[in-house]
Amino acid sequence: MTLNLSDCPRESEILEAVAFGRLPQVREHLDTCASCAEAAAIAGALRRDHAAALGEAHVPSAGAVWWRATIRARAEAARTVSQPITMLQGIAGACAVGLTAAFAGVAWRWMQTFTSAGDFIVRLDARRDEIAAASALLQYALPLTLGLAACLVVAPLALYFALSDD
What we know:
Number of helices: 5
Structural class: mainly alpha
Strand content: under 5%
Distance between the termini: 68 Å
């Protein structure tokens, strides 16, 4: 069973005439049939809206769409690949800071040991001048050790910032 809401059997002919711009050929029927005239008015409005929408649409060329899709796919692939590398760089930086702090702690204790050994040696009366000269060298050892430790901290950080893309 087909559902036919049309009152006129020529309505499909009228709609075809509106679609192909042949309204003058069916003008006599439109003047006598109100149902077909209404259908022709609605179809005409839809046709004008369709033509206006086609005129306003700015569709890029296929080459531009392909180029953009290729660039986007490459960028997403690069971002996906670089995530583990970035995480490993962060872990390596944290390890470098931890090792530097551990080295500084060991160096500090080592310097304390040498300082107390130097004091003990100074107390000895034998070779007082030589011991004093060695003790003077130990005064510069702590700043030198701290300077080296600072270089060990700053160098990996400088490399990280110099080589990172972000």
